[in-house]
Design goal:
Mean pLDDT: 97
CATH architecture of the largest domain: 3-Layer(bba) Sandwich
Bound molecules: flavin-adenine dinucleotide
Distance between the termini: 28 Å
Number of strands: 22
Radius of gyration: 21 Å
């Protein structure tokens, strides 16, 4: 049995820990603060296989959806996925045309809904150009998922240590090692750096093609009139969560801190009110912000994450760059991680870090 040390207890680290532990590996997770402190704690958790202006299919989307369900099932928390479906109101006629083409091209996963039909199903929804219906979509409470996966990894023998920050790492011919903020040295056969935004503090990672984008979500009190609603994605997005709605999200490329702001909160609510006018005055209960770590398009045309050994290393791996759709990539890649660790040539070229 080999020993993998995972640094970072967000979505990437938690998915990796569970699948490796399930495969019989010895796993230790080090988390600097507590699970889902970073982007995973700010996300709305939308699972949308047809994102973007043209609703193009996400990378290996059928496998990606299956991997979310398999991962939650392993943790015995299948109910963390809310199977509401996703409705994407078209912003204008041009987008409506793209959406109709998407529905024609993938009828088993998407359908076109006319304005009149929508008006009778969802009288409070403004969708003058029609909408794309994505029945397999939904949402996940992402922070709860991270916690559940880590617990499930522990149940399979993994050790999860919170409040332990890695400050250095390295490898020799015998092992990989990490030094912590308490000067402890921990050795393993390999380490997987799943640091999210923590990458910026390590000059060794400067060469990776990673870009930081701040994002904010807000939680609104759910107006009574919006009791029956799927997840929406069009003017921002709206994710139903009990008697609240999570609304997202901002994309800020220049920022000085990672705190939520009142200005963004109001802008997000106003944007969502373009789809659901009843939200214009809804009470803002909470706001969260985090940093999406993304791989720029010039390095990855499909903006995929990075998974694999760091340049010049065999035992030090990265699992990062999950961007704005971590749910569609982290479970999928983590599911195959035991195979990739055994044979790195099997890592899909699209996600390999630059060599
Ligand atoms: C506002 C917002 C909305 C989003 N909405 C969605 C969405 O709807 N759907 C979707 O799929 N994705 C969404 N995302 C993206 C998603 O949140 C990310 O892709 C995913 O959560 C990233 O997970 P991660 O594990 O890579 O990073 P993180 O969640 O940031 O986790 C990294 C962890 O590493 C720890 N760490 C860092 N440095 C160290 C160190 N030196 N030692 C030990 N631990 C360390 C941190 O404390 C943190 O817990 C959203 C993101 C944001 C910001």
């Amino acid at each position: 049995m080999s020993h993998t040390l995972i640094v970072g207890g967000g979505l990437a680290g938690a998915c990796a820990a569970l699948w490796l532990a399930e495969h019989g590996e010895a796993v230790t997770v080090l988390e600097a603060e507590y699970p889902a402190t970073g982007a995973s704690g700010a996300a709305a958790g939308l699972v949308n296989p047809f994102m973007g202006q043209r609703a193009n299919p996400a990378w290996r989307f059928e496998e990606a959806l299956a991997a979310i369900h398999e991962t939650l099932a392993l943790a015995k928390t299948p109910d963390l996925f809310r199977p509401t479906g996703i409705l994407r109101p078209a912003r204008d006629e041009a987008q409506a045309r793209h959406f109709r083409e998407r529905a024609e091209a993938t009828p088993q996963h998407a359908a076109w809904r006319l304005t009149e039909a929508l008006a009778s199903m969802y009288p409070d929804l403004a969708a003058p150009h029609g909408a794309l219906w994505i029945p397999d979509g939904g949402s996940v409470h992402l922070a709860a998922m991270v916690v559940a996966l880590l617990h499930a990894a522990e149940a399979r023998g993994a050790t999860v240590r919170t409040g332990v920050r890695a400050t250095e790492w390295g490898e020799d011919e015998r092992c990989a090692f990490v030094t912590t903020n308490t000067s402890e040295r921990i050795e393993a056969d390999r380490i997987v750096l799943a640091l999210g935004d923590g990458f910026q503090y390590f000059p060794d990672l400067d060469a990776l093609p990673l870009h930081r984008i701040k994002g904010q979500t807000i939680r609104l009190a759910r107006p009574d009139s919006l009791a029956d609603l799927p997840a929406l994605s069009g003017f921002g997005y709206v994710v139903p969560d009990g008697n609240t709605l999570v609304v997202g999200s901002s994309y800020e490329h220049d920022f000085e801190d990672v705190q939520p702001s009142q200005v963004q909160s109001e802008a997000l609510r106003a944007k969502a009110a373009q789809m659901l006018p009843a939200l214009a005055d809804a009470e803002i209960l909470d706001a969260r912000a985090g940093v999406r770590v993304t791989v720029p398009r010039r390095h990855s045309p499909r903006r995929l994450p990075l998974l694999g050994p760091l340049r010049g290393h065999q035992r030090v791996w990265v699992f990062t760059g999950l961007g704005s759709k971590g749910l569609l990539t982290a479970p999928l890649l983590a599911r195959h991680l035991p195979t990739y660790l055994e044979d790195p040539t099997r890592i899909p070229p699209d996600v390999q870090p630059p060599r």
